[in-house]
Every structure is written in C-alpha cells, then in structure tokens.
C-alpha cells in the first residue's frame, strides 16, 4: 500500500514538473513572438509623441513637457526591459549578466523609470484637477519655472527611491562542481542585510508606486468627473432657458 502511495506521489510530482516546464515554455514563446510588436509599435508611438508635440498648438507647454517625459521613460523601459528580455529568450544571451555594472545600472534605471512614469501621470492629472477647482492658479502651476521644478523633483525622487539597486543588485551564479551553469541579475538574498533592505523596499515601493498614486488619481478623477457632470448640467440648463426664451419671443 505504501509503495502504491509513493508511486502515486511520484507520478503527481512528475506531472506537476511537466506542467511547470510547459507553462514556462509557453511564456517564453509568448515573449519571443509578442516582444517585437511591443518594441516596434512602442518605439514608433513614443517617437510620434515627440513629432506631434513639436506643434505648440496641440497642447499646453507644461503638458507637452510631461508627455515627452513619459515618452522618454517608456522608451527606456522598452529597451531596458522588453528588448533585453527578448534577446535573452530569443538568442539565449543575457545582457544583464555581461558585467555587474550593467546589472546594477539596468535594474536601477528600470525601476526608476517605472516610478517616474507613475508620478508623472499623477502630476499631470493633479494639475488638471487643480486647474478645474482653482482656475485662477492655472498660469502659476503651468509656468515654465514650475514645470522645470516639478520635472527635476520627479527625476530626483524616482532615482533616490530606487537607489539601493545600485548597491544591492548583483550577478548571482549557480555552480555545480565549480562550474557556472546559470547566472542571474538580481539581489543577493543570501545576504541578511540585502534581504532586510528589499523587504522594507517592497512596502515602500508598494505605497509610493501603487497605493498612494492610486488614491491621488482616484481623488483627481472624482473632481474632474464631478466638474464635467456639473458643466454638462449647466450647459443643458442654459440651452433649456434659451429655448424657452425663443419660444416666448415667437409667441
């Protein structure tokens, strides 16, 4: 009976392993096929942002600056993440493990750009919401000086929030009989200090890049939607009053 149970467990374990390998192969295939489309269309789209924004009449100066910043951040993300990952899966060449400096800089830039994109969007939407609530402050908020200050603060905040990547990220090697069989650019979780730092950072990143932006954007959206609804209602009331006056004049 015990032998039968052991055999059943072995079969189940084997099936799970096969399923895991199959799922991993499927993901790799998706990356191989889908990544070129993301790279091509993403690059084309972000370049078009720059070309369209050359026309100053398209949007306000401050919004144009933020949109360009988003485009640059997205382009870096495409080349630093999607492209390098596609090269690893397609050609089995991992650029991230060529040198430790590449590993550190790549992870730092990747996470910094992610934070930068998130907070740039928050600043853009918040500026629109403030402009709706306090229209007389639009010129001050969207001035060249304020836009430049916001731009610098966004970049510094994004870089500093993820600065630990420059120190704690490294190339992890797996060896069998002193032969390196696998390399990965990641944090060294065997080190207690590194593990502690990344545990703390996960919570900080969750708050600063997910929860807090979500709350701010939610409030901004409520303000904007409420303003749109109010404006629509006022416009309908004005049209109704105008129609009534015209009807009385005809009578």
Automatic annotation (TrEMBL):
<dbReference type="InterPro" id="IPR052954">
    <property type="entry name" value="GPCR-Ligand_Int"/>
</dbReference>
<dbReference type="InterPro" id="IPR000276">
    <property type="entry name" value="GPCR_Rhodpsn"/>
</dbReference>
<feature type="transmembrane region" description="Helical">
    <location>
        <begin position="200"/>
        <end position="219"/>
    </location>
</feature>
<dbReference type="InterPro" id="IPR017452">
    <property type="entry name" value="GPCR_Rhodpsn_7TM"/>
</dbReference>
<dbReference type="GO" id="GO:0004930">
    <property type="term" value="F:G protein-coupled receptor activity"/>
</dbReference>
<dbReference type="Pfam" id="PF00001">
    <property type="entry name" value="7tm_1"/>
</dbReference>
<keyword id="KW-0472">Membrane</keyword>
<feature type="transmembrane region" description="Helical">
    <location>
        <begin position="147"/>
        <end position="168"/>
    </location>
</feature>
<keyword id="KW-0812">Transmembrane</keyword>
<feature type="transmembrane region" description="Helical">
    <location>
        <begin position="65"/>
        <end position="87"/>
    </location>
</feature>
<feature type="transmembrane region" description="Helical">
    <location>
        <begin position="33"/>
        <end position="53"/>
    </location>
</feature>
<feature type="domain" description="G-protein coupled receptors family 1 profile">
    <location>
        <begin position="45"/>
        <end position="251"/>
    </location>
</feature>
<feature type="transmembrane region" description="Helical">
    <location>
        <begin position="107"/>
        <end position="126"/>
    </location>
</feature>
<keyword id="KW-1133">Transmembrane helix</keyword>
<dbReference type="GO" id="GO:0016020">
    <property type="term" value="C:membrane"/>
</dbReference>
<protein>
    <recommendedName>
        <fullName>G-protein coupled receptors family 1 profile domain-containing protein</fullName>
    </recommendedName>
</protein>
């Amino acid at each position: 009976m015990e032998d039968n149970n052991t055999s059943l467990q072995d079969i189940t374990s084997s099936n799970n392993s096969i399923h895991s390998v199959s799922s991993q192969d499927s993901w790799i295939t998706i990356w191989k096929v889908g990544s070129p489309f993301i790279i091509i269309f993403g690059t084309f789209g972000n370049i078009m942002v720059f070309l369209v924004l050359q026309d100053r009449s398209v949007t306000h100066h401050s919004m144009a600056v933020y949109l360009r910043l988003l485009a640059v951040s997205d382009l870096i993300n495409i080349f630093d993440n999607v492209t390098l990952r596609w090269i690893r899966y397609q050609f089995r060449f991992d650029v991230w493990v060529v040198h430790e400096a590449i590993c550190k800089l790549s992870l730092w830039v990747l996470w910094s750009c992610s934070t930068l994109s998130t907070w740039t969007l928050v600043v853009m939407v918040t500026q629109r919401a403030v402009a709706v609530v306090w229209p007389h402050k639009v010129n001050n908020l969207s001035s060249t000086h304020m836009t430049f200050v916001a731009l610098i603060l966004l970049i510094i905040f994004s870089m500093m929030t993820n600065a630990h990547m420059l120190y704690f990220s490294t190339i992890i090697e797996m060896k069998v009989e002193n032969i390196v069989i696998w390399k990965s650019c990641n944090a060294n979780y065997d080190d207690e200090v590194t593990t502690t730092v990344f545990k703390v950072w996960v919570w900080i990143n969750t708050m600063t890049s997910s929860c807090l932006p979500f709350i701010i954007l939610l409030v901004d959206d409520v303000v904007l939607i409420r303003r749109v609804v109010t404006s629509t209602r006022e416009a309908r009331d004005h049209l109704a009053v105008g129609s009534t006056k015209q009807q009385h004049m005809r009578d």
